[in-house]
Amino acid sequence: MNASTSASTAVPPGILTVGEHAHWRLAWLSTVDHKRIGVLYLLIALGFFVVGGLEALFIRLQLAVPNNTLVGPDTFNALFTMHGTTMIFLVAMPALFGLANYFVPLMIGARDMAFPRLNALSVWLLLFGGLLLHFTVFTGPPQAGWFAYAPLSETAYNSSQGVDYWIMALLVLGIGSVATGVNLIATVLSMRAPGMTMKRLPLFVWINFVNSFIVIFALPVLNAGLVMLLMDRQLGTHFFVAREGGSPVLWQHIFWAFGHPEVYILALPAFGIISEVVPVFSRKPIFGYEFVAASSVAIALLSFGVWAHHMFTVGMGRAADTFFAIASMLIAIPTGVKVLNWSATMVKGRLRLSVPMLYAIAFVIQFTLGGLSGVTHAEAALDWQTKNSYYLVAHFHYVAVGGVVFAILAGIHYWFPKISGRMLSERIGRWGFWFMVLGFNGTFAIQHILGFMGMPRRIYTYPDFANWGWMNFVSTVGACLMGVSALLLVLNIVRSLLRGQPAGDNPWEAWTLEWATSSPPPVHNFEALPPIHSRRPLWDLANPQRPDPVVGGDAIASPDRLRISMWSLIGSEAAFFGTLILVFAYFNISPPAGPNAKSSLDLTKTALFSVCLFASSFTLWRAEVAEYRRSQSGMLGWLVLTLALGGVFIVGQGMEYWGLLHGGVGVNVNLFASSFYLLTGFHGFHVICGLIALLLVLGVAARGDFRQGKPSPLKSIGLYWHFVDIVWVFVLATVYVLPRVL
Amino acid sequence: MPQQAQCHFGRRSSAAPRGNHYRTLAESPWVFRETSPFGFGENPIAAAFVGARSEFIVPGVNGASGSIFHPQSAEAHAIAHLFTITLIICAVIFAVVLGLVVYSLVRFRGREGEADPEQIAGNKKVEIVWTIIPMIIVGVLFALTVQAMQVSDPPLETKPDLVVIGHQWWWEIRYPNTGIVTANEIHIPVGKQLSIRLDTADVLHEFWVPQLTRKMTTVPLLGNHVWMEARKSGVYEGVCSEFCGTQHAWMRFQVVAEPQEQYDAWVRNQQRKAPETATVAAARRGWRLFNDMTCVNCHAIQGTPARGTAGPDLTHLASRRTLGSVIVPNTPENLRRWLADPQQVKPGVKMPNFKLTDEQVSDLVEYLGSLK
Amino acid sequence: MSSAQFFAQAWGGGPVLPAACAGATLVYWLRFRRRARWPYFLAAVGVVLLALASPIAALAAGALFSAHMVQHLFLLLAAPALLLLSLPGETTLPRSAGVLSHPLLTWSLGVAPMWIWHVPALCDAATVRPSIKAVQVVSMLAMGALFWWPILAPRARDRLQPLLGVVYLFAACLGCTALGMILTLTPVEVCTVFRNPVAPAATASLVRDTWGVSAETDRQIGGLLMWVPMCLVYVAAILVELRRWFGDHELEPARIAPEVRR
Description:
The complex is a heterotrimer. By secondary structure, chain B is an alpha+beta fold. Helix content of chain B is 35%, strand content 16%. Chain B is elongated, with a radius of gyration of 26 Å.
């Protein structure tokens, strides 16, 4: 064997296509292929999983024995802050996004995601955000916990730049995630193959579709909160400082308004994976497809209305505790329906206990436990005892590890043959599975009891109370076993890449479209698609004598992806501005001491330049009409007028800021000023973005490119512009008009 | 000592640098002794669940942390009761799911080369049944929850008997009715329901005594409160359960519940002001050091010019069970270590290392030891 | 007055209401005769009576802000939905009302009453003055019915496409959540009359002293009612929409895909 052939055989299939060996770095760095981006997501997740896992190991080693001194208190606090943030934002979310990126287009028979370049941007933003967070190794890491409760996260109590980097990293990750969410929505709505109607979507796709809505609505709320915290830290505002009129409880509301949906951002795609794996390895369709699909929507909706159950001990009052207790308990119903459906899928099946199925079965059992202990937390009175105890730690790890991580592992074992073209070793997989089950339950089952016995979370050491020592030691041993399992997984993957059995197109005899192409799939995904009339096209193909019943009609609507993405982005931005407007209302309903809306703002002047902004919506509409009528001059004219009107608005706002700043109303004067600049500043920023976009359109239009039959971006940018104007209606009402009336 | 006989897995064999106060507590000359043992909690099932033994021992003295399933107040009892019911219901639900899965694993294991089974896509009736059953369960649990909430968190009507203020990382305890100010140690009379107002001097903390009351966050300016009572005398462990910075782990406290007479005696003792002049020469030197150095900027000693409020009130330091928020027992030896370098005993504590000479430390220990 | 006495006595809302209900029933009967869906219609009337002639009404008349919110929920959400459900299968809006049934308009009309009737001046006036109260009741019923029209119209083709219906309902949920949050979390006082109750002294003292509901708690419960249960109604409606959507194909007989059959 000569050198050149060994070099080419050393690279497993699927990593590079023929002809890419010469520029393999670029092939991956510049890729816009959803499959490679999916793999990049998974690799980044794996990398950070190692980091977060080591952090977890050090946490457990420190807690192995009472009064331990392996790491000091500050190190420990940094460890759990970074562990939580890493595992949620840099491991679980990227791993799930990675699987969604790889398999959603394949499962709907699409060539790629709706916006491949945006997709690439998301994954590199992820890496950038992750590195930004870990840059804190040099600045002093954040030590405020992953939910960074104010005022502990304020400069007065966390003066190192760690928290600032943490904020910036989360902002970057949040923007990247919203982009992914928008992209997935547009992909599912606009890129489906003929016959793949919305009612025939595989559950993994359906659930990721529903989940993307949570992503685009929840993350902007966090971004709003993060900006406020950053302003507190860098500009001297006091949004979350009680003695200056701010409210630490508001941070909790904002954080958990994001944070609770975030739990489902992790859990729902996990449900999606399980809903694919369990049927295939039971050799039966999912029991009650409609119920699993609808319960996902119910969970997604309820997830937005129950965040306050994270705050049962903050003193919201009994009324609020009661309402949020029942709302939270309701989530148990759709979740329970799901668990029962998975179990019922197995009943009367022919179970094949391959590694993915083992993980899925463990998921069902462990997630049920996590869900049930979740019900105990929803019962507010119980939460009054167990919140912030190790019982809570056990609960959310049962959901996040026993549930989400097990589902990701099921998914990786299930889809690895498709991604790489090679089978993983069943033997190593089984060893890894049993280490994982033993390790996971060993680590966390016993923590329930530690919680009952009064052990609070986030303590770097503990007194030698009866039974605490050995219980914690057991937990630490469990964590080490999980570490072994992780090593076995990496070993298995590397071994398989080097000399795994070839997988073939459909090693599991599964029924969804990703198995209808080669493993790994070609760049363009499919040579030919099978006919699609039901939810399991490959079943119909393999069992022509007993096909699935046809689901609905074949007619397929694929709306314009640009418009879909713009509407999704608008939904996301609406959540962001909604949060900012509520924040303004929160601080100004009883005006704070010092300058306020009534005393400082000039309604007449603002009304004047507001009229300009509203008029610009009209002129932009005329530009759209002109474009429709193919009148280039008309379009250019109306566009220039739109830009001018928008410019006047920005100049007007600039003059207002100038006047206020010279009148001594700086951003940190009081909460009126802070919330005013926050809200109008972000609106102005959006207007400027819109102006830049319009300027680009103008430039393209001036070159006369538009009438070559290409779809025009003007309609989508127009949507955005109108949205920014509508936001100003609300801002004008909340900031300028209502304070005068009320 | 009997409590030393029970050896815990994972206990450090050599004396830890910061000591292990539960092992040495009984040796402490200033320790408060309470020997009446608890029986089992009110819930045998729950007790079995947490693996408690029948010779359950008094917390604090013999080294048990106290479990939420051994409630000693009406508030905590209501929660424990609800918890037991909920756990039983959850166990039944879990058994159903586990049963289904295990049944499938045993009964429906596929064999090599077997044809695929009948393709059942669902059953609407079954779905509706198992949607409605959880609804009923949730309804029942919710009703029980509302009931428990009423018992465990009655509304506050009177002015507080106690004000507890969280500091990074210790607890200030104020008794508005008697004017007593102390730290990290709450003395209460047995069998009396007390209202506690919670406040904070800096960040959010959380007040939690598992056996006696619900937990509640201390939020600046919000005026949260809890009710607390102890049915039996004993020492109950309390802790801050909201992460509050470096030494969150050692922001513990103890609730000492005593019979009324003992409590009254304690009150009388606490109301005494510190003596103007110490009788022992070393203690006099200690007082002068205390006054001349910056100690007075942070600490108060009633009856002297020391009026600082940033650190714990030391008027009756020597009568307290522990130092540094229950990190070590209050022995002269530990006090010496603390004064020599607080950072070594409790890394990150706000009290800096004053680099005192051995002699200065001895004098201060003598003086502070006289503040009974 | 004890609670039991109060709940026994505080029934009846004057002569106008029963007359109106009887009139409506008569019209309904004359209009639909045999096609009438009596259970829904009677339920709708029952809900209206419960809102306006029961102890809830007595409390809402200046004693308990949260009771007034329950009234709103009944009048804006429950009663109109039941009314639409009581319409037999082929009922349509008169042509002249066609414009009114545009989803953007019905959505705005459905969300607006909650905001408008909680403008402090209007809220107080509606609580104190019967004439304005009447306007409020009628407007809520009418706007509620318009709101539900794209979801519950008797003819399937008058309804929104179910997935759009989901968006419609979700957006409505956000609309009232925002107000609910403001009422719950901020010290805003939208109905000042409830702070110093204008209701008969006996009712007022029942609320404040016997039940121990402070003005503060009352306001919070009011906000929470708008926030949580109201959204749960919308969530339930969303699930109905999804059921309809998934259920659509079950109406067609299961047919075998032609390619597969070959």
